[in-house]
Amino acid sequence: MNTTLDFTKAIEIAKNTYWIGKYLENDPFQCHPYLIVNNNESILIDPGSMLEIDAIIEKINSVSNIQNIKYIILHHQDPDLAAAVPYLETLIQRDDLVIITHSRMTFLVKHYGIKSQYYRIDHQNFEIDINGYKLKFYTTPYCHSPGAFMTYDVQTKVLFSSDLFGGLEESWEFYAGDDYFKKIEGFHMAYMPSRDILNYSLRKIENLDIELIAPQHGSIITKDKIKPLIEKMKEMECGLYIEKKYSEDLTSTILKLNQLKKEFEVSLEEIKQLKRSQDGDYYLATLLIKPLIVNKINSDKFKIDFINIQKKSFLFKNKHNQLGGDLCYANYIKINNQNYILFFNGDAMGKSIQGTSGAIVMGTILNSISYRHFDYVQSMSEFFHISEFFYEIYNEIQSIFLSFSGAMMLSGVLGIIDEKEEKMYYINAEHPYVVLYRDGKASYIDKELTLRKFGFLSEFSLKVNMFDFKENDVIFIGSDGKDDLLLYDGVEKKLNTDPNLFLSIVEKNQGKLKNIINFIYKISEPTDDISIMRISFKEHNYNKNHHIIDEDRIYKIKIKSYIRQKNFKKALELMEGPSENQPVDILLYRGYCFLNLQRYLKALKYLLKAKEKQPDNPVVLKFLGLAYYYLKNYKLAKEYWEKAIELKPEDSLLNKNLKKVNSILERQRVLMGKAQGLSQGVDKKEQQIDTLKYELEKI
Question: Which contiguous run of DSSP H or E holds residue 41?
């Protein structure tokens, strides 16, 4: 021990920089907090545990005032440096107190009960400027914590190294002697996982201009000893001490894990086979329902369009399919030799196969009805004929669905349109109310429940509703999927309870069906099948393209909806299959999902394929740069972002990211004492690593 120093007092190790620890006799594991006095913005570094807190507080107050501390640096999460923070918060009593640490550490140190705000170094370009007082931070991952880092004081050139350069000393010395390597070797062998990981951290600081290294344990290292010590440390054999019995147990465990892995792989293949078989059954069901979803109306007065999006989506033979219980149908029928338009929008009870089965039954009934002629006594009024028609087909549908004894029910609006009289007649079997869009305003034309679902005994007498069209009227009939929406209010998702939400959506989108569907998926997460039928009468400027969405577009709406919900795994399930045959936008979506799942090499696979197809697509280049950035290949990230900016110079985020990566590359050049990548003096091993990074482009 350096006997000339008084350890009962704060010791100044550099200008305005103090060791404020407590010397514990006969303890080889000394812990060292430090204080940088900077007026009322002082910085406390690794303040320690409650074992030493009284001495630390006394020393702080001897050179400053504890309430002058504005920043506390926590280099990692261990209790020997962080446990005292909550107590110090009560003494410092500053609302603007800031904990400087890595974001990986915030998840752990919060468990001490820390209340102050965090300054996350990895979100702040690994530096801080405190009114001109500058600190730089260098990450040392897995030495010995994933989010560990060191702090370099630009003014005094002191490196606060945390566990790096720390030692266990039976005879502790404040300043390191010539034999210090022996004192730190055992500590590093036990606490640092490997030589490569240790060297990665040492390379970051070996070219820094360091006057003093102040570790959390061991001794303070003066400038003359720093470089020789670093060179010796590069050869350290680091790693865990493993006892023989533990090693044998570990080997046995690995063998068991390998066996479990094989069993898991067999089970996984069985599950995949079952899924393929299930998807095959689903696909057969779609083949049955597709011919029953028809629109055969060709009228000068009336235009009928509908969009049917089922909740259940799946891939079969690399093609998107959907399955559910919603049904739209439009065809012609004859009543007393006069043509009428028959239409239906319904929602069968149950999910997937059950709902589809109900829709298939209803579609088959409607198909049968459309091929029959209905003749009634000619002397009766037209409304009487129409009422007779509805009684007849309602009883037919009801008898079939009642025969399923409650296992199959269906809500729906069933109607006919008299083109001559320009009237609509319909019954509503417990389906959402019919909507009228007239003169830019949407409203319900139904006022109350008049009939129970098909397949459920109703206490109501059958009531046929009548509606007279006016020029430019638009009718919307839709399933409850258009209303049962999960809305995000900025805090959490809540199920829509506003009965007029759909009316406002219709108005906002000017009655355009395609826009209505896109808007629903943009603002919400649908929880059920969505089907909407649109019937317009003598509509000015009717454009069919405003009201149809093809299967490919529905597929992409579903993918984007899952991505918007951050359900990236579900989105990826919809995009499985050979990437060679997929369009650029799907490859982009796949890459984007893997980026968000932090599977960056997997993201590169799809983004590079997208680049092959569209080499000048700025979005592809932007995401490629992001993937390489996360892989810490900043040189390639820069190259792709520069190309993207050439194509899209107005992209502010791209410009911001490029500045950030240029700053990182410049800092690396300074720290490493050489140009990034292939400048003179780069050793052969590093050249090989750079070459491998470039080879990623050929994956």
Answer: none
For residue 478, give the nearest of 419, 413, 389, 561 by alpha carbon.
Answer: 413
Phi, psi of 512 (to 5 degrees): -85, 115
Terminal alpha carbon distance of the chain = 58
Closest CA to 168 of 181, 151, 156: 181
Q: Are strands 485-488 and 524-526 parallel, antiparallel or unpaired?
A: antiparallel
DSSP classification of residue 452: P
CA 146 – CA 171 distance, rounded (Å): 31
C-alpha–C-alpha distance, residues 134 and 154, integer Å? 6
Per the DSSP assignment, residues forming a β-bridge with 478 are 532
Residue the block writes with tokens 């089970």:
267
CA nearest neighbour of 482 among 356, 350, 347: 347
Query: Dihedral angle at the C-alpha atoms of 508, 509, 513, 514, nearest 10 degrees?
Result: -130
Displacement of CA 452 from its chain's centroid (Å): 42
3-class DSSP assignment, residue 418? strand
- Tell me the residue ranges of DSSP E strands in 154-217: 158-162, 212-215
Residue 649: strand, helix, or coil: coil
> SS3 breakdown of the chain: % helix, strand, coil, rounded to 5?
45, 20, 35
Contacting residues for 624 by C-beta, under 8 A, at least 6 apart: 604, 607, 608, 611, 640
Contacts of the segment 182-186: beta carbons below 8 A, 24+ positions apart: 183/218, 183/219, 184/218, 184/233, 185/236
37 pLDDT above the threshold of 80: yes
Q: What is the pLDDT of residues 646-665, one digit of tens each?
A: 998 888 888 888 888 888 88
* DSSP category for residue 71: E
Query: Using 50, 70 and 90 to split pLDDT, how confident is the model at 249?
Result: low
User: Is 612 within 8 Å of 599 (Cβ atoms)?
Assistant: no
681 pLDDT band, cuts 50/70/90, is: very low
Alpha-carbon distance of 143 to 164, in angstroms, equals 7
Tokens representing residue 627 in the block:
């993937």
| Alpha-carbon span 187 to 184, nearest angstrom | 5
DSSP assigned state of 180: H
User: Which is more confidently placed, 184 or 623?
Assistant: 623
| Portion of the chain with pLDDT greater than 70, in percent | 91
Read off the amino acid at residue 690: D
Q: Which residues touch 42 (CB under 8 Å, ≥6 apart)?
A: 35, 36, 64, 68, 69, 70, 71
Helix/strand/coil for 112:
helix
Q: How many CB atoms within 10 Å of residue 344? A: 24
Q: Give the span between the Cα atoms of 507 and 417, in whole angstroms.
A: 24
For residue 166, the SS3 value is: coil
Residue with tokens 């998107």: 320
Longest CA–CA separation in the chain, Å: 124
pTM: 0.57
d(C-alpha 470, C-alpha 111), whole Å = 67
Taking all residues of the chain, what is their mean pLDDT, rounded to a whole number? 86
What's residue 73's pLDDT? 95
Q: Which residue has the tokens 């001559």?
A: 420
Cα–Cα dist 271/249, whole Å? 32
Q: Which residue has the tokens 């405003």?
A: 546
Residue 344 has pLDDT above 90, yes or no: yes
